Amino acid sequence: MYNRTSATLMLQTIMVLMENQNGTDVTNFPGSFGEVERCYGKYGCFSKGYPWTENRPDNYFPIPPESMAIRYPTFTRRNRKVPVFLQADNIDRIKNANIDPRGPFYFISHGFLEGGHKPWIQDMTNALLNQEGNDGASVMIVDWVGGSQPPYGQAVANIRLIGVMTAHLIHNIYEVLGLSNVDNFHFIGHSLGAHLAGYCGHALQKKFNLKLGRITGLDPAAPYFSKTVTMVRLDRSDAKYVDIIHTNAMPLYMSGLGISEPIGHVDFYPNGGSIQPGCGANAGGGGDLAPAVMRILGCNHVRSHEIFVETITPSCPFIAMQCASYEAFLAGNCTTCDQKHFCIPMGYHSYTMYKKLHDAGLVDTNTNIALFSMTGHNKPFCRVHYEITLKVSNTNASRTHGPESGKVLITLVDRYNNRSEHKFLDDEQKYYKPGDIEKKMIAVKDKGHPPLYVIVEWKYETNLFNPMTWRLLKSPSIHIEYLKLSSIEYNTDITVCPKLNKPVVANLPTIMKTKYCKFRK
Predict the structure, then answer these.
(1) Nearest CA-CA partner of 504 in 404, 437, 412
(2) To 10 degrees, the CA torsion angle through 5, 8, 13, 18?
(3) Residue tagged active-site, from 58, 143, 219, 267
(4) Active-site annotation holder among 191, 274, 393, 420
(5) What is the span of the domain harbouring residue 487?
(6) Are residue 83 and residue 204 in the same domain, yes or no?
(7) pLDDT at position 9 over 90
(8) Set 190, 301, 305, 385: catalytic member
């Protein structure tokens, strides 16, 4: 966890960035006045001219490599606890590290204010090593804690140099092991680490004519990178396949730390990509104020790597669907996996499906696919999706009863009597009138089987100032003709109805089954 000092520094950094972004248009360039370029031996020269001046309140040169003490602790199945420490240009260490040339090879990079010792990095390392078929895997941590400290602008500059250094390491591994390409190399970066991965991929192409197989960007940092040219940030040209998970994509003044633009071949926006379930005031927990505030501010941002770790060995398919927007997805406008709405599992296993689409000529590597999904508020985050279509009866009984305001609560039950969690179709009370049809997307924990029937409840709350909620002589209830459930993951449809067309009375659970639909009028 963050200590009080680092949490305070993070908050101060955010405040400084907000002040700079909302204030003067004058750009401050720290460092030697008039110096436009600085060189670092074999790693090349780094400019502070365009485009590194665009949309940035300040601009720095990277600090020298020896000042950052970059380390690359490397883990395999043979050495999970005590890593071998590599250096970018130490060939002997690579030769003596006993790296399996079969691969795959993973690089993991943390972001601002962090280091390679973080528990989430160890969790990800273990999950990758445990993955079936990864007997020869090597996981290399890009530990740049010496360069990830404030000010933020300095850390932004440092990753340019660290990216080139990491490219040198990858090239040296490629040479020592006698590999034919680096298709089997997968760079996973969080926040600033995502852009570091981009710099690494770019340097590999420019200096060594090698192209990384894959980069996964986990909520790539937005400050200093939004609305910049592709050279400045991670983009899909930096590897053969670039996938992004956005979890905190909103403006900095709203505590957003992640970039919103689609920048990969595939961009995933779980829960819309900005605010994640369970990340609210209660996310801070107990303890000291500063760490609690830090957890609240960072909850959405860190959810990206929490989700990715889970996708390595998921509890359910983790399907995301292509749609025009998250709002359109929630409205049930994208529920069928077809050539207009691609379905791709989010995270680690996304490339398998993307490659199938690409090999079939259905996707172009020069274009982007944006996909949406819903997750839970805690682990396991994976959920399965159902489009719910509710039809309010237009019978004489329903019209006589009249419109109702309330909320519909449903519980899905499978053939083994496993029940899902209760799900409201709407968070707020909704006005239902006879003949209405409502479509909604919901997500529930996967029980391993599609539902067989549904338990429906009508939650009614009277409001003194809303006459539509007054029920003086009639019981609060709603006449539902049917519910149709369309599953994305199971590719099934069922329609259920109330027995004998009876209404759903407030706070009285009603079982709806397919066989009851024979009574529909």
Answers:
(1) 404
(2) 180
(3) 219
(4) 191
(5) 384-519
(6) yes
(7) no
(8) 301
Number of domains in the chain: 2
Query: Active-site residue 341, yes or no?
Result: no
- Band (pLDDT 50/70/90 cuts) for residue 14 is low
Q: Which two tokens stand for residue 287?
A: 């303890």
Is residue 363 assigned to a domain?
A: no
Can you name the residues that pair with 414 across neighbouring β-strands?
Answer: 451
Secondary structure percentages of the chain, helix, strand, coil, to 5: 30, 25, 45
Asked, for residue 369, whether it belongs to a domain, the answer is: no
Q: How confident is the model at residue 401 (pLDDT cuts 50, 70, 90)?
A: confident
Task: Give the pair of three-digit tokens for residue 521.
Answer: 């009028």
Ordered alpha helix ranges (H), 177-233: 192-208
Q: Are residues 44 and 180 in the same domain?
A: yes
With contact defined as beta carbons under 8 Å apart, do 441 and 426 qualify?
no
Start-to-end CA span in the chain (Å): 60
Question: Could you say which DSSP state residue 71 is in?
Answer: B
171 classed as catalytic = no
Please write the tens of the pLDDT for every residue from 280-334: 765 555 444 445 555 667 899 999 999 999 999 998 999 999 999 999 999 988 9
| Amino acid identity, position 49 | G
- Chosen domain end from 301, 316, 331: 316
Determine if the peptide bond prior to 314 is cis (ω within 30°).
no
Residue 407 vs residues 51, 410, 479: alpha-carbon distances, Å = 52, 10, 13
Task: Look up 301 and say whether it is catalytic.
Answer: yes
The DSSP secondary structure of 240-257, one letter per residue, reads SEEEEE-S-BS-GGGT--
Q: Do 297 and 446 lie in a common domain?
A: no
Q: Percent of the chain scored above 90 by pLDDT? A: 76
- Specify if 356 maps to a domain: no
Average of per-residue pLDDT across 246-272: 93
- Number of residues written out for the chain: 521
Q: Please name the residue ranges forming H helices in 334-490.
A: 350-359, 396-401
Identify whether the C-beta of residue 168 lies closer than 8 Å to the C-beta of residue 176.
no
